[in-house]
Amino acid sequence: MENKNFFYNIDKIPEFRYLCDRNAERVALEILGISSPIFLTQSGLFIKESTFFQDGSLFVDFFRDTFINLAVNFINKPSFGLDWNIIKESIANGCPVIILVDVFYMPYKRHFHKDHAAHCILLNDVLDDNYLVIDWYEPDYYIGYIEEKVLNLARQSTNEKDGASVYSGYPIKATYKVVDAKRICEFKFDFLKCIKDNFINMYEQLLSNETIAFFDKIKNDLPGWVQYYDSRYYFNAVKSFFFLELELNIFIYYLSEIAKIQTGVIGYMQMKEATEQFRSGVLIIKNKLHRSIKKQVALEATSWKNYKTTMLEYYYKILHLLKLVISGG
Questions:
Q1: Are 71 and 187 in contact (CB under 8 A)?
Q2: What is the mean pLDDT of residues 111-135?
Q3: 142-165 residues labelled b (16+ CB within 10 A) or e (exposed)
Q4: Residue among 40, 326, 327 at smallest CA distance from 184
C-alpha cells in the first residue's frame, strides 16, 4: 500500500471534530499524496435545506461530505453490505475504504461500551482478517489493526439512540465508500483554480433561493421557538447552530490555509475576519439556547434580534468579499 510510512505525519486538525466524514476523506487524500486536501473539499456556507417556522421549529441542513467540482469523482458514492471481499480487493488495489461504524463497539474509543454514535473511519491495509484503521480524529488519533469480527459488530449496529450524541439513533447499514486512488494520483493540483472553484460554488449557493429565503426569514420575522419555550424546538435550534458553528470553523481554517500560500490577495483576510464575527454571533445564540434549555425558559427576544443583526451584517459582507475575490479585484 502506498505511503504507509507517512501515516504518523498526518495533520491533526481540531476544526474537523464532529465532522468525521470529511476528516476521513481528507486523511485518505493526504496519505495518497495530496498535500492540502482541504482545498479539494467544499468549504464555507452551503445551506442545503432549512425549515424555519414549521410548527415553530428551526432546522438547517448543510451540504457535507462533498468535493468541489474539480474533484467530484475522487470517492465513490456510498455502498451498503458486509461483503469484506470488496473491501479487501479495493485495498489490495491501493484504494483506501471509508466505513461507517458505531463507536460503541470500537475498543480504542472513549465511547467504547458507553455511548452510541455513527462515525467514519478509514481502512488502508489488511493482515489476515485484521484491518488497519486510521481514525485521525480528536481526541483519539488512532492507527492500528482491528479484527474483522469487531468491525462487523460496529458496522451492523442499529446505533441505538441514547441522547449522548446527535449521531446516535439511526442504523449504520454497513455503509462504505471506496477512495479512487488512480484519479487522485493523476490529479493536477492547481491551488488557485481549486480555491476559485470553491468560492464560485459558495457564492452561487449563497444566492440560491433556499439560502435567500433562510436569511429573509431571519431578517423579517421573530421565530416561534424564540417566543415560546418548547424543549423539542430548542434542541432542534441548538443542533442547527451547532452545525453552523462547525461549518464556520472549517471555513476559517480554510481561509487561514489560503493565507499561507497566497498572501496579500485582496479579500481573503477580510473574509476571514467577517466569518469570525459571524461565528461569534452563532456562539452567543447557541450558548443562550443552552441556558434556556437548562432553565426551561424562553430566550429573550432581544437576544435573537441582536444576533440576527450581526448575522445579516456579516452575511452580506461575506457575499461582497466573495464577489470581489472571484472577479479578481
A1: yes
A2: 94
A3: ebeebebebbeebbbbebeeeeeb
A4: 40
